[in-house]
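step=predict obj=VOC family protein n=280
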Amino acid sequence: MIFHQKPATYVSHVHLLVENVEQSLSFYEDILGFAVLEKKGGEAVLTLDGNKPILTLEQPEGVKPRQKRTTGLYHFALLVPSRKELAKTVQHLINVQYPLQGASDHLVSEALYLADPDGHGIEIYRDRDASEWPWNGEQIMMATEALDVRGLLEEAVGESFKGLSKDTMMGHIHLHVANIEKSQEFYGALGFQPVSRYGSQALFVSTENYHHHIGLNTWNGEGAPAPELNTVGMKHYTMVFADEAARSEAITRLESHGFKAGGYRAVDPAGNVIELAVSE
């Protein structure tokens, strides 16, 4: 997974606010196979490999229901290591009758879409080999075509699902934002390059020529407001830089563009909070 290690800058972890942490844990443990790495009060840190945190669930005091038409999380995307692992996941979700919201072939990847009990969007996908990705100059060609579910399920014959693979990682994140151009300026200052644009409403950016580490859209409305504090949704996500120098340079660029970053935390123009980390 060369796009999720140094020298790339990538997303590694998402922190969610939930209405009922026990209900959420039941879903992530029983349906997807996460394990609790650490639990304290209304907060649980989840892992798939028994070591690396990938998702945090938090039930804050006075939690408020999800607000509509705001900025924030559209979905987080879990990248499985192979087509067989994706096939096992599809078969498992069929077996337990957990509803899917979609299943697509994006040319660069094959993906499933679902939501957790709080409505947080989840993509589970596998990448095609990067040598197969279609490019038009500096723009990657992605599409939303019907997934070959029958062909995919053939890979699951004789296999059993015992939870998402321990090699699954946070592949990318897709965010609702208030303005595409301002968001492009912000994420550009962090070192991300635009690799695909869909009109004036969606932009995909990455480092090291990945098909996208971050998706940005205004589908909740141009100028959409940020959600209120303690509202069900994303609290923050973690962005990992190759080293301390890369992080420091990114912070300097942010500040030179008039954006604020303090305590290794930044807030994008839409109010999405980012923890700025360094690769171990």
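step=describe
Helices lie at 21-31, 83-95, 149-154, 180-189, 244-256.
step=end
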